[in-house]
Amino acid sequence: MFFERPESGELAVLVHLELSAIDSPEDPREFEELALSAGADPVTFIFGQRAKPDPRTFVGRGKLEEIQQAVREHGAELVIFDHNLSPSQERNIERELRCRVLDRTGLILDIFAQRARTHEGKLQVELAQLRHMATRLVRGWTHLERQKGGIGLRGPGETQLETDRRLLRARIDSIEKRLEKVRRQRDQGRRARTRAEVPTVSLVGYTNAGKSTLFNRLTDAGVYVRDQLFATLDPTMRRVELPSVGGMILADTVGFVSHLPHRLVEAFRATLEEAASATLLLHVVDAASDDRLRLMEEVQLVLEEIGAADLPQLVVYNKIDLLAAKEPTIDRDADGVPRAVWLSAVTGEGCELLVDAISERLGEQMVRGHLLVAARHSRLRAQLYEMNAVKGEEYRDNGDCELELVLPRGDLQRLLAPFAGAADGPQWRAAE
Questions:
Q1: CA distances from 188 to 232, 387, 420 (A)
Q2: I need a labelling partner for 407 at 20 to 30 A (CA). Which of 164, 267, 334, 415 fits?
Q3: What is the pLDDT of residue 3?
Q4: CA dist 133 to 35, 321, 384, Å?
Q5: Is 252 annotated as a binding residue?
Q6: What is the pLDDT of residue 364?
Q7: pTM for this one?
Q8: Any idea what the CATH number is for the domain that residue 82 is in?
Q9: Does 91 share its domain with 203?
């Protein structure tokens, strides 16, 4: 990875400006949590206000001197801005402060670099880092005017900067091809699940809302859980059996954050497509957060960006154990359809209500009834058992079997299609 981190936390000065030109400012508390999640050791937090950013240093001369004094006073090695800086602003600030400067996008990229565990996740992080660094490649070089020359180096006539850009472009192309292969593999998996009519339920929500804790509660998967931002980066999928519905695929996805850098959304598109193609989204919300409405809006913005805003949603208000006298419950709309569930993934309170609500929402696509299967059609009976669709059976004197079934409508139609028009084919009777 491109960021080398020391074993102990780096002493960091945090900078946050309130800009009147920005409609939705960043939350300074979230910024501090991001810095801590990256392993920084904040020594001071500098606030300020401006109508709009200074084009050269973002903060202006007076505030830059205040930051410079804080760096000297605390011996800070790093200054982190809660804003996205242009490459020239970043270079100008570093020149003045004589220490490393990181903006919000660089900070989130560093966190992602630490969290990535799978080969795919590491590729996605590297791609995002390369794209970010491509705009800042000029920094740190003092020999950019020199042409290649000397034994073994004659010929191309490139400056060092041009060579670096070409190598960077080649690496980006290579990673994009490998991620395209991953995307095709994921598409094949999704098509297979669609053919088998296995519904997919994806957990989405703001980072640190408790998605992985809930995922572990429902699946016993042992996914890494910690009270920090972006604890989960790589997607995890598990099959879960629901009492009245049958099998479903539950997917845990990367958490969202306000103003998620666009290059991260692009790099993680293969992962986020799991949410975009889901049958149902479980929007996990930190019910104990004072800012939960804004955070829910931020999640909706990311869902819109990945084309998942119109998918059916079930809101899960998590962490009710932190609320006074809030009981687990299901909120329903005027038609009685579950729209929200209040629970605690840590204690398990209300998780059974969530299973019931998911079953109801997915059950809208299910059919229930009895199928009379002749003895010679034992293969059909075996297929129904493999799909966990059989809830009971009763044999007739002639060897025929009447199966009590609950299964997706598409599965039933597919299994009975070969017998269409046959007088002695299986006989279906829907439940009343």
A1: 24, 20, 29
A2: 334
A3: 41
A4: 20, 43, 54
A5: yes
A6: 66
A7: 0.64
A8: 3.40.50.11060
A9: no
Is 206 assigned to a binding site? yes
Angle 94-42-74 from CA coordinates, rounded to 5°: 65
The strand pairing partners of 240, in sequence order, are 248
At position 3, the amino acid (one-letter code) is F
pLDDT averages per 10-residue partition of the chain, 432 residues: 49 88 68 84 90 90 93 92 88 90 86 73 78 65 42 48 74 83 71 64 86 86 49 66 76 72 61 74 92 88 82 93 90 89 94 90 78 89 84 88 82 83 84 74
Q: d(Cα 86, Cα 104) in Å, to the nearest integer?
A: 11
pLDDT at 431: 79
Residues 205 and 254 in one domain: yes
Question: Token pair for residue 399?
Answer: 């060897």
319 and 404 share a domain?
A: no
Domain count, the chain: 3
DSSP-derived secondary structure for 99-163: SEEE-HHHHHHHHHHHH--SHHHHHHHHHHHHHHHHTTTTTT-S-TTPBP-STTT-SS--BHHHH
Residue type at position 136? R
Encoded tokens for 147:
């042409």
177 is in an annotated binding site: no
**Domain extent for 241:** 193-364
Instruction: Report residue 418 as tokens.
Output: 């070969």
Phi then psi for residue 348, to 5 deg, are: 90, -5
344 and 416 share a domain?
Answer: no
Pair 57, 15: CB distance under 8 Å: no
279 is annotated as contributing to ligand binding: no
Residue 385 annotated in ligand binding: no
- The label of the residue with tokens 């939960």 reads 292
Amino acid at 294: R
Q: Are 228 and 33 in contact (CB under 8 A)?
A: yes
Is residue 152 part of an annotated ligand binding site?
no
Q: Which two tokens mark 329?
A: 């419950």
* DSSP per position, 9-70: PEEEEEEEEEETT-SSPPPHHHHHHHHHHTTEEEEEEEEEEESS-BTTTBS-HHHHHHHHHH
Query: Would you say 431 is a known binding-site residue?
Result: no
What is the number of other CB atoms lying within 10 angstroms of the CB of residue 98?
9
Q: Tell me if 211 is assigned to a ligand binding site.
A: yes
